[in-house]
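Revision sheet: structure tokens.
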Amino acid sequence: MTSIILFNLVGVAVIAFIIWWFWLSQSHQETKVSDNQPIEIVVENGVYSPAIIRTKSNKEITLRFIRKDHSPCAEKVIFQDFDLSADLPASKSYDISFTPNKIGEFDFTCQMGMYRGKLIVE
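Predicted:
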């Protein structure tokens, strides 16, 4: 009986750690787009860094994803609200250029939704 309780407690602790790591611990680094310079976003250890990108509406932006994480979850980035996605090569940079034409806050994620970022369009 004691081993079952211990096993359940360890399971709850692992679940809590996973929730903290993927959704609660991410730093909220923010970068503002300026002067047509690409914004470098590092994909590593379960996070996008910076995770928040601020830009102006109807202005072309280039996001340069640098994938350092070789996990399958890091292979793809999806901007669902802009119907845009890209396969990110491992250990290389990959540029995504587009013109956000909507104002608001838009998430970008990996295909499983564990890596999370936000594009704020003003």
